[in-house]
Prior knowledge:
Shape: globular
Order of helices and strands: HEHEHEEEHEH
Structural class: alpha+beta
Radius of gyration: 15 Å
Low-confidence stretches: none
Largest sheet: 2 strands, antiparallel
Helix content: 40-55%
Amino acid sequence: xxxxxxxxxxxxxxxxxxxxxxxxxxxxxxxxxxxxxxxxxxxxxxxxxxxxxxxxxxxxxxxxxxxxxxxxxxxxxxxxxxxxxxxxxxxxxxxxxxxxxxxxxxxxxxxxxxxxxxxxxxxx
Length: 124
C-alpha cells in the first residue's frame, strides 16, 4: 500500500487487479493494472514499485514482507483480473520488481510460520 500511496493513489483506492498477466508482464508492458471501473492504473503501480525498490536499495534492504494477493505486493498469488475473487499463481508489480533486483520477498503468512519455527528451534 505504501507504494500506491507514495505515487498519489487515494486511500481507499478503487479495487484493482492485473489484467493479461502478472507483475513481471506489467513491468514488461504486456499486461495492465486496471481498476474495477476499467481505469488504467498501470503507470501508478509501476511508479510505486520503482519507489519501493529505490527505498530498499537506499536502506540496503534484502528481504521484504508484503501482503499476499495484492496487484502490488502479492508474492505467490494475485487475483486473476476478473474481479471475481479467483486467484492465480503469480506476483504483483512490486514483488516482481524487487525479486528481479535480488530482494527476497515473503508474504505475511509465511513470516508468521517462520517466526513460530524459529521460536521452537530456539527453545530446543
